[in-house]
Design brief:
The protein has 84 residues and is of the alpha+beta class. The chain has helices spanning 15-25, 64-72, and strands at 4-11, 32-36, 41-48, 51-58, 75-82.
Length: 84
């Protein structure tokens, strides 16, 4: 059983530009920002209701997010559901 959407992961070329849209245009605020070396990304979490938007910028050209960006461009990467 799924209880809620925990977060939606979006790949962006530049985190600052993604944040400008989500913060400036939609009024969301950053709850957490970090570089996750083992995943090759810089990430930011923006709460929205009981869920979050996760923006992912690749920092390692060999990483999965960088490969995703090269193949598919910016956009939806994953949806994470919470289960009991």
């Amino acid at each position: 059983m799924l209880t809620r959407v925990h977060h939606v992961g979006l790949v962006v070329r530049r985190l600052e530009e993604g944040l400008a849209f989500w913060q400036g245009t939609l009024g969301l605020r950053v709850a957490k920002q970090a570089t996750i070396q083992d995943q090759g990304v810089r990430a930011a979490l923006l709460p929205i209701g009981r869920s979050e938007i996760e923006l992912l910028e690749p920092v390692d050209a060999a990483g999965g997010v960088a490969k995703f960006l090269a193949r598919r461009g910016e956009g939806l990467h994953h949806v994470c559901f919470e289960t009991p």
